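Recall the central idea of this unit: under ordinary conditions, the amino acid sequence of a chain determines the structure it adopts. In this exercise we apply that idea directly, starting from the sequence alone.
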Amino acid sequence: MTDAARARGASEAGRRLAESAAPDFLLSIETAPMEARSAAVLPDEPGAWLYEPKWDGFRCLAFKDGSEVDLRAKSGKPLGRYFPEMLAALRSLPARRFVIDGELVIETNGQRSFDSLQMRLHPAQSRIARLAAETPAKYVLFDILATAADRKLVDRPLEKRRAALEAFVTKIDGSDAVLLSPATRSLDEALVWLKQAGQGATDGVVAKPLSGVYEPGVRSMIKVKRLRTADCVVGGFRYSSTSRQVASLLLGLYNEAGKLDHVGFTSSIAKSDRAALTKRLEKLRATPGFTGKSPGAPSRWTTARSTEWEPLRPEIVVEVRFDHVTGRRFRHGAAFVRWRPDKSPRQCTFDQIE
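Accordingly, the structure predicted from this sequence is:
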């Protein structure tokens, strides 16, 4: 036998050994979570839908086979390294094998904190371990894809999967780390949840067809977010990276001390308006722009170029639409609605969003 043949034989034997030792997760860890498409209103066909809060966390599929546990983000990337306390919690559950779907969340000072989740995505294992001990994550479950008894549940309707999920959670009752998401068939109750969304734990409501099977990677559900508006002061702007035209407006609100805090941005400015708007804003350039919290400095997620901004005199007020507030900031970019020349900048305070 040649050296090459021996090498191929050794490689094949190694592959078979690795496969034989690999955990049997009932479903492939490459399984993508079922997703939702956005809508303006919740569907209301009687008896056809199950409504759930839309949790503001990290979507996560969890796979378990004995002592082997794997956490996968919506992107397919492994999350276990960043949430060692959740690996331990799932490993300790009496259920030996399962695949479940839910949202990782973290509470700080009694409130759900998306910022605390983002802090976990850090290269230093020592920091992750410290944060896992100080602010342990919880796993809010809203679907079950497989169990040791029922094997794959993805082809069963949601009505059957929800019953299986509730039975699963009942068997692990007492776990502080694994929780069952509330669900209702009442549109009225779902509308109450939607009204309460946008301030921490949830950012909307998800509607799921009760007769629907689990479709990995398919937008078979419907999500509705609570969109609100606020009048904000334009405390600065950023130029485009490719021209000297305005790319985004930096938004501010006055805090209790009378200081203007940066709260987010809007970049939804019509292309046809940018040249005239740039000239208008350049005439208002003056420091400091924001007298309280200012736009952040460069970090490992940004570049110095992307954080450069031009301060303005606080004279322009704009109405924007937003969907979620975290740490007194808009979590996502706000959508431009209209200019508000009728509003005084000093009227733009935090009581609009709290």
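Residues 242 and 305 are 11 Å apart (CA to CA).
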